[in-house]
Amino acid sequence: MVTKEGTLKPTLLTRYRLGTVLIWVGVLTWVPFIILRTMGQNPSIFWFLPFHLLGVLGGSRLKAAARREMDAAPPKKTRLRSLGHFLVFTGILVWAIYFFLKLVIHTPVEVSHFLPYHLAAMLSGVTILLVNFLVNRQKS
Question: pTM value?
Fold first, then answer.
């Protein structure tokens, strides 16, 4: 990570890394959910969703705040980066449809019908963002 001053405070770097750990904890929250589903149980997503959102959203906000405080150079805006962010945003919006159908219209819907679209968009978006990061890192 390139900073404008060239030096990093250890606490800021620790916060940045903690943000990454929180994101992974938020993602891995679903492992017990998946295990329970494969065992034939039907756990409610509402027991897992708050921990997922706290980890992913909290971790990303922590990383962004640490980046700002480190005066890190903002990433260059490229087409790959825009495409990656679009796919991530689309993957999140899948759940807006799910919650609208489930909570507003009261239609019986299954998580398993929406999860593949969410994962496909999120994993594709994150992969494209990673490729963009690696391409820009080689150029600089």
Answer: 0.77
